[in-house]
Amino acid sequence: MGVVLNSMSREIVEHLLDAVSPVTTKGLAETLGCTPRMVRYRMEDVAKWFSSKGVKLQRARNKGYWVTLEECTRQELKTTLQSDDSYHNIFSPEERQRFLTVLFLGAQVSYSTQQLMDIVGVSRGTIVSDVRELRKQLIKWDLELNMVRGKGYRISGLEVNIRQALAETVLELWSEPSRSGVRRIPKQFLDVKRERPHPATPRMKVLQTADVEADITFFCNEVERIESELGAKFADASRLALVIHLAVAVFRVQSGNPILLNDKQLKALKSTEHFASAKKLAERVERRFQIEFPVAEAAYITLHLLGAKRSVPEDQFSGDCDYFSLMARQIIQSAERLLESTIVDETLLSGLTTHLIAAYYRVKHGLPIRNPLLNQVKESYSDIHKVSTEACRTLSETHGILFPEEEIAYITMHIGAAIERINRKKVRKTQVAVACAGGLGTASLLSAQMEARFPHVEVVGMYPAFDLQKHLPSNVDAIVSTVDIGVPNIPCAVVNPVWGFEDIKAIESLLNLIPTVWDSKSKEQEKTSLPAIKLKKEAIRFKVKCSDWVDAVRTGGQILVENGFSEKRYIDSMVRQIETHGSYIVFQGGVALPHAAPLDGVLRPGMSLVRLSEPIIFPGMEHEPVMTIVCLALTKKIAPTELVALRRILLQDNAREMGAAETLSELMDVLGELVETP
Question: For the whole prediction, is pTM greater than 0.70?
Answer without folding.
Answer: no
